[in-house]
């Protein structure tokens, strides 16, 4: 039997993975606006949070055969959904959907699914860096340089002290796989961790290198950018240098199979207790004007990602000042880019534009 999600405009917002690291942040933010239903494999772990915010919590194991049914007003995926169960159920039931977990290939698969089952509700694929915040800020800056971006460059400073859940390592564990980017209007394949260089991000001179993130696929489509590049570095340049040195040995290529999975994942996942999320977005307009934004969230990357998901929820529910329309979209196609920075500030995120 299939999972059954049936749209109910008065029902709760269903957050799958809603008591995980990002999910908990989103649950606390979203509980101020809507009734919530949290789902995961072990609902007992989410009980205290559910009690804290007055939410319900139920079991839905996306790896187990038992079907799930609910009548939500919207659903947010904050856990990897390898078989697209949440998306398929949302498409079948006409439920507004937001996802923040998909890497580029999985986002493309979601788009293919929307071709097979055309959505009757909004489907927001908001998996770009920090739940689409990088893309939203790029749209806001593009608006300030005349509405069209020729180039978008995003540089991320990943705080090694920050929290990250077990489910997030899969996104990072693709450093042996080349991916396609658009640069100077042409598409080409690049290798993760190539293009290393130093960028000043919020006063920190940070060594960054390429990483595959979905906004490099969506920004050229949605904003018409000829160039979209995202690079990432750790808060300690020696750690980035060590990762780049490991890449030079070819480890991420020859070690990319199952045999080295646990070694790779232990290298990529050693979370801390909490840090600051920091990202720089540079946009060059078609008119040659440039704008830079530095986005800082002292509550860390899980909170910033949750803010991205929250803004996504408002959008698919038609609560961000524009009517929500059925169909797939990306965060950077935001109807009111002028309001983006204001919405981020309101959520405790600092954005400095120069
Ligand atoms: N777009 C971005 O910039 C961005 C940033 C950060 C994170 N993310 C993504 O957000 C996701 C969550 O990351 P996280 O750090 O919050 O991970 P996490 O702390 O491990 O949280 C995962 C949550 O999902 C539940 N879960 C795990 N496996 C499940 C399954 N098979 N079926 C149903 N529920 C399951 C877990 O609870 P149970 O163990 O009880 O099932 C937990 O509540 C990851 O996919 C990550 O890549 C995206």
Automatic annotation (TrEMBL):
InterPro entries reported for this sequence: NAD(P)-bd_dom_sf (IPR036291)
Source species, domain of life: Bacteria
Protein name, as recorded: Saccharopine dehydrogenase
Species for this entry: Streptomyces luteireticuli
């Amino acid at each position: 039997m299939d999972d059954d999600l049936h749209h109910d405009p008065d029902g709760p917002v269903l957050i799958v993975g809603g008591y995980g690291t990002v999910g908990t942040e989103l649950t606390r933010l979203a509980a101020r606006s809507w009734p919530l239903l949290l789902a995961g494999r072990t609902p007992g772990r989410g009980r205290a949070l559910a009690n804290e915010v007055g939410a319900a919590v139920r079991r839905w194991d996306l790896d187990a055969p038992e079907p799930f049914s609910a009548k939500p007003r919207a659903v947010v995926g904050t856990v990897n959904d390898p078989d697209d169960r949440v998306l398929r159920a949302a498409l079948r039931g006409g439920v507004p959907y937001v996802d923040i977990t998909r890497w580029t290939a999985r986002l493309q698969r979601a788009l293919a699914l929307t071709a097979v089952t055309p959505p009757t509700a909004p489907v927001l694929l908001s998996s770009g860096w920090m739940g689409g915040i990088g893309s939203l800020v790029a749209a806001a800056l593009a608006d300030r340089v005349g509405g069209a971006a020729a180039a978008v460059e995003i540089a991320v400073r990943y705080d090694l002290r920050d929290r990250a859940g077990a489910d997030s390592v899969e996104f990072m564990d693709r450093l042996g796989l080349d991916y396609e980017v658009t640069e100077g209007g042409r598409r080409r394949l690049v290798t993760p961790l190539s293009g290393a260089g130093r960028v000043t991000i919020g006063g920190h001179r940070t060594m960054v290198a390429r990483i595959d993130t979905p906004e490099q696929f969506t920004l050229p489509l949605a904003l018409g950018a000829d160039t979209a590049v995202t690079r990432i570095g750790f808060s300690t340049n020696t750690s980035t240098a060590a990762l780049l040195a490991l890449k030079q040995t070819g480890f991420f290529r020859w070690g990319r199979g199952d045999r080295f999975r646990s070694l790779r994942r232990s290298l990529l996942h050693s979370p801390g207790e909490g840090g600051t999320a920091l990202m720089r977005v540079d946009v060059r307009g078609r008119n040659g004007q440039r704008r830079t934004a530095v986005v800082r969230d002292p509550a860390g990357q899980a909170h910033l990602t949750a803010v991205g998901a929250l803004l996504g929820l408002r959008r698919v529910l038609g609560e961000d000042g524009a009517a929500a329309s059925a169909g797939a979209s990306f965060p950077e196609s935001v109807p009111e880019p002028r309001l983006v920075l204001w919405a981020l500030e309101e959520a405790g995120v600092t954005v400095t534009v120069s």
